[in-house]
Amino acid sequence: MSEVLVLVDHADGSVRKSTFELLTAAARIGEPVAVFVGDAAAGEAAAPTLGEYGAAKVLVASDAAYSEYLVAPAAELLAHLVTERQPAAVLVPASADGREIAARAAIKTGSGLITDAVDVAADATASKSVFAAAYNSTAKVTAGTPFIAVKPNSVSAEPASGAAAVESVSFAPSDASKTARVVRVEEKPASGRPNLTEAAIVVSGGRGTGGDFSPVEALADALGAAVGASRAAVDAGWYPHSHQVGQTGKAVSPQLYVAAGISGAIQHRAGMQTSKNIVAINKDDEAPIFELADYGVVGDLFSVLPQATEAVNAR
Ligand code: FAD
Predict the structure, then answer these.
(1) Which of 46, 91, 133, 226 could hold 22 in an S-S bridge, CB 3.0 to 4.6 Å?
(2) 259 C-alpha to center of ligand 1: Å?
(3) ipTM higher than the 0.90 cut
(4) In what order do the strands lie in the sheet with 3-7?
(5) One Pfam annotation, family name (predicted)?
(6) Measured from the CB, is residue 268 less than 6 Å from ligand 1?
(7) Which residue has the least CA distance to atom 25 on ligand 1?
């Protein structure tokens, strides 16, 4: 069976859920092989968990260049692995880094890349959700090795048995790839909430909050959700830009997206339209967000959100 390379998404060795989703998708095409780029000990430690989601092997590449420089060394590594192992496909998380690594590696190997896939079939055909989730399109790479960037939360991760034998990869990235250094900047102290682009539930607030995000945060905490914001709320300085959802913010695709006091402008939709279930709370019954919502509540968010929070907490 042909190998399918899966780029492991991890934060200092802690593997993100999106990787397990990719392994499940990879198993439909061939034998999942995880590519762990980072510290060798962390890669070894992650191997059993990767095996529990079907990884037959874990290739660990631990050159210091991967953590010291931006994506170019990792892209060279991936291109090298594709040339050497001729996998049936390469799956990466549709994160900013994942997309860029895949794009650079695809160019180096004369391959095609499909971004923002929401599903992957056994023949490496990818589905994409387009026009405010009104249509699904399918795409297939016709040149080289298919590189597919899959959105988090699109495929459900299923446990599977894999041997997860660890192989260390010795590959030295070129000096040309070592140009843009990584600079680590501490964001504000962690809120304990999940990462916005990975969260299964996102509760977002807009201009309708008037700057008071406390009911949005309370519902998010009751649901174990991440907090998002519209650009109007971010531009007003009510919430950090790192939480902005939309065309010029982050793209999210959770199981549940709650939009409170958000009108539903096209640029906001661009970042959340592939959410599985959308709930809108808006006091204007003609707000465009209701065209997209699966469930809508016409009402004041300062009354609706606390009631929802109370109901969730009472469970
Ligand atoms: P508004 O459109 O002002 O809507 C506020 C809503 O809250 C209204 O529907 C109102 O009825 C409702 N409301 C008010 N009070 C309450 C209450 N008490 N209870 C319940 N409902 C209430 N926007 C993004 O979000 N993300 C982007 O990435 C983004 N990128 C952009 C890029 C470009 C190039 C441009 C031109 C625009 C971009 N925008 C983006 C801005 C976008 O066009 C909208 O202006 C923005 O999304 C509006 O934010 P909003 O829905 O919070 O505010």
Answers:
(1) 91
(2) 10
(3) yes
(4) 113-117, 147-150, 89-93, 3-7, 31-37, 57-61, 165-168
(5) ETF_alpha
(6) yes
(7) 230
Cβ partners under 8 Å of residue 210, min gap 6: none
Portion of the chain with pLDDT greater than 70, in percent? 97
Query: 230-241: per-residue pLDDT in tens?
Result: 999 999 999 999
Give the atom of ligand 1 at the shortest distance from the alpha carbon of 281: 20
301 touches ligand 1 (CB under 6 Å): yes
Expressed in angstroms and rounded, the spacing between residue 262 Cα and the centre of ligand 1 is 5
Q: Tens digits of per-residue pLDDT, 97-118?
A: 999 999 999 999 999 999 999 9
Question: Token match 């010029």: residue?
Answer: 248
Secondary structure, 3-state, 6-46 = EECCEECCEECHHHHHHHHHHHHHCEEEEEEECCHHHHHHH
Helix (H/G/I), strand (E/B), else coil: 278:
strand
246-280 pLDDT, tens digit each: 988 998 989 999 999 999 999 999 899 989 999 99
